[in-house]
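Continuing the series of single-chain predictions for the mutant panel. This is the parent chain; the variants come on the following pages.
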Amino acid sequence: MAAESWLIVGLGNPGAKYEATRHNVGQMVLDELATRLGGSFKSHQSNARVLEGRVNPGEPKLILAKPNTFMNLSGGPVAGLAKYYGIEPDRVIAVHDELDIPFDTIKLKRGGGHGGHNGLRDIQKALDTPEFNRVRTGIGRPPGRQDPADYVLKPFSAQERETLPMLVGDAADAALLLVSEGLTAAQQRFHGAGGGA
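Parent structure:
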């Protein structure tokens, strides 16, 4: 069973205060995936809310998860879920916000550094490897001299909110394409529009 299962984790912070912030775009993507699976998240012993399902019969089982912890403590729930379901790191997908990519852009990769992203840093430490997949959802750099730490905890601007549903939909598509066709196919589709790594 585990051989065809994938763990897709949406990173963010818990609570209504953070729900609409840039840092929580990963969890917005998971909500979109949950809608497509036609289910709702339920509490799990690994300190996360989890939804299990398939997009279509016969396709790989997806375990969608939103950790209950703050972003910088994401590793414990992710490692706990991977162990519970018997999923190797190369079938773990972390969906997260990415400062180094322009808003409304999606990039995918496996492995590599955490780029100062505390959620990724903690997952890397807990899994004891960087070799998990990332759906990097571009939020862009803060304007002027605004501190990136403040910027990510602010809600999207009114202008950004107009295209946010498309960004969230694209990131959900990217995660599902990674599962169904592999990383290279997903990169070719989503990197073609914006170029770069």
